[in-house]
Structures are given as structure tokens and as C-alpha cells.
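Sample intake sheet
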Amino acid sequence: MVPWHPLMILVSKRRGILVMRLIIDGHHVIPKDPDEWAKPILHIAADMTPSEMDELKAQCSTSVWAALVFASVRRTPVRTLNNISIGKIKNCDWDLVVIVYEKGTLVNCNMWGTRSVTRTRHDYPCKDNIEAAVAASPQRKQKCINDIDDIKILKEEIAALHCAVEDNTSMVLQTRAAFVKAVDLLHEYSVKFICD
């Protein structure tokens, strides 16, 4: 049996992409500690493109791929790896990096002139087995409502400042016009006084 080689990374400088190759013994045997074996692979796989991920999947046997997928799944007492399945579900066709989808929800969009809009689904890659929250907590909803109220207050304050600036500008222009008129009158009187 050939000794286990955990991981070899080749960097292609011409194309600037990571090419990842697993060197496993001839029988594609999974090591005794698959978690430690999978950590560096999952870390690099999180930054791989879909084509690089397909290349990696093509190089691995189904049992090795299933072990890598199992390493990226949240563990429970019921979820155990049985060759190429977790429980009774085959995982050899799953993606290596787990994606959590946020359910579409109605969002109030009065600011943009529409009543409500359905948000589209967003992908949240789950690194280090941390799942994205699907629903907003009541505290977050209240914070958003408070933020919207603060924005409305700020808009009102900005409108008041804008009116004050316009009023002050018109007052400054009126004062300037009166000053110019007074200077002109003074000039006329001084010319008359000097000439007489």
C-alpha cells in the first residue's frame, strides 16, 4: 500500500488559477481521521471556481468525494457517513461547499414608489459550517423600523435646513442689493458735494 499524501497544490502562474490535485493511494482509501484530512481541502475549495470544482470531483472517487462532502456538513448523532451516503441519502453528487438559500420574502418598498416587492434568493456560502440566518429576528426588524424612522427625521431636517439656506441666501442678496444702492447714493452725494 502506498503511503498517504494529504494534499498537493500546483499554482499555474500563466493563468493565475489554483489547480488542486489529491494524491491518494491507488485504491482511493480515506484516512482514519477524515476531518483533519478534509480541512485544508475544504479551505481551498471554498475559493475554487465551478470548473475547478468539477475537475476536482472528476479526480476523486465517489467514496472520497462523499467523505469530503460529509466533512462540510453539520454533524448530528443521526448523520453518519456510510460509504457514499449520509444515513440513507446519497451525497456523492452533492456540492462540496454547502449553499444556504434565503426564502423570498415581501419587502416594503414605499421609498421607491411601489407597495411591496418580493426579494430574490441570495446565495450564502457557509464557511466553517456556519449557517446563514433565514428569517430576521424581532430585534432586527425593530432596528430596521427605527432606522427608517431616523431616516424620515433626517429628511425633514435636511428639508428645513435647505429652506433656511434659501431664506438666508435671499436675505443676503437683499442686504447686498441695499448696500450697493446705499454705496451708489453715497457716491452720488459725494460727487455733488465735491462739484458744488
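Comment: The chain is about 45% helix and 15% strand. The radius of gyration is 35 Å.
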